[in-house]
Design brief:
By secondary structure, this protein is mainly β. It folds into two domains: about 5-145, Roll (Pnp Oxidase, Chain A), CATH 2.30.110; about 145-209, no CATH class. The chain contains three helices and nine strands. It has helices spanning about 5-10, 85-90, 185-190, and strands at about 20-30, 35-40, 45-50, 50-55, 60-65, 75-80, 100-105, 120-130, 130-140. A nine-stranded mixed beta sheet has the order 3-4-2-1-7-8-9-6-5, with no helix packed on it. A hairpin with a 2-residue loop joins strand 3 (about 45-50) and strand 4. The longest helix is centred in the first third of the chain and has 7 residues, at about 5-10. It is globular.
Length: about 210
């Protein structure tokens, strides 16, 4: 079950609306520069999450499931008439191992939290023609994920500054704009009740749990 904001739920449940739901894709190539393309299937560019997404033709084909235990795949076709991506793929042997992130957003509610409508895939294969660059996408490798999710450190907070877990500034009008996430800084900001480190652990040592 998706945990969407109330605004998104209300928009989703409308019988009709003038605000389209848009599909965004972020293609991050596996070259040294991490070349990134932000594209939106739309008639005009949009800005989302601090990035400009270029209006660009692309298609998504439904996920394919096999009966022999194969990894489910999704086909993404990106217009190749302008040769925007093909030169990179030729240099990267098809770009296998690159990543593609898909996000569905509402054009009138771009400031909402869309983390529940975001999906990440690995590029398993690619091909091109005069019209399309075709990516075969699969589930990302578990080997790329941090295990365990958090590092357990005594004097370093694991929360992002001003995040929901950090809570700094909620309802207090605080104006500090930076934090190095140390215990000392947290004390300066009078926010140790939300400190995300593990003070009980001996500093300078390593514990495996």
């Amino acid at each position: 079950m998706k945990n969407l904001s109330q605004n998104l739920i209300a928009e989703k449940n409308k019988m009709s609306s003038d605000a389209p739901w848009l599909i965004l894709i972020v293609i991050v190539l596996n070259n040294d520069e991490g070349t990134t393309f932000h594209l939106v299937r739309n008639t005009e560019n949009i800005t989302f999450g601090g990035n400009e997404y270029t209006a660009f033709p692309f298609e998504l084909e439904p996920t394919k499931y096999g009966s022999k235990g194969e990894i489910p795949t999704l086909t993404l076709r990106v217009c190749n008439i302008t040769r925007l991506i093909q030169p990179y793929l030729e240099d990267l042997d098809g770009g296998v191992g690159s990543t593609v992130t898909l996000t569905v957003v509402n054009a009138n509610l771009l400031a909402e939290d869309y983390s529940e409508l975001e999906m990440m895939f690995d590029v398993l294969a690619s091909s091109s023609s005069a019209v399309w660059v075709e990516f075969i996408l699969g589930a990302p490798s578990l080997l790329r994920r941090r295990m365990p999710l958090y590092r357990y450190l005594a004097l370093h907070c694991r929360w992002k500054f001003k995040s929901e877990e950090c809570k700094y500034g909620e309802g207090s009008g605080e104006i500090e704009t930076s934090c190095n996430r140390t215990l000392e800084r947290c004390r300066e900001l009078n926010n140790t009740s939300n400190y995300g480190g593990f003070i009980g652990m001996k500093s300078g040592g390593i514990k495996i749990v």
